[in-house]
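User: Sequence recovery, please. Input:
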């Protein structure tokens, strides 16, 4: 792909990924075929800030985990009322990283 397209994609979507993943994403996009560009453009990434807010408000019910695609963990949180509150509090600190990991996995699935 063209470097200009890749740089524009990274600038507009960098909040969805960890900063240490940005060079890896750039390399993957530069190596990818132009035919995959349309697929990359249509990807919908989860906003980590939005997921954090949901986690603060409804994390005890597992809504945050359902939103990022961790259905099993969401069911576990729902059945245990957020691990009796402990799991919900722990998720306040790790949910943004988990969301960013899900986003990069989604991008890698399209590019490989």
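Assistant: Recovered sequence (112 residues):
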């Amino acid at each position: 792909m063209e470097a200009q397209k890749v740089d524009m994609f990274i600038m507009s979507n960098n909040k969805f990924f960890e900063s240490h993943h940005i060079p890896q994403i750039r390399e993957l996009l530069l190596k990818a075929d132009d035919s995959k560009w349309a697929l990359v453009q249509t990807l919908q990434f989860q906003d980590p800030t939005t997921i954090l807010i949901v986690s603060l408000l409804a994390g005890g019910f597992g809504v945050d985990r359902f939103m990022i695609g961790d259905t099993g963990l969401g069911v576990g949180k729902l059945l245990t009322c957020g691990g009796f509150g402990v799991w919900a509090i722990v998720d306040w600190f790790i949910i943004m990283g988990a969301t960013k990991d899900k986003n990069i996995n989604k991008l890698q699935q399209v590019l490989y």
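Residues 10 and 25 are 8 Å apart (CA to CA).
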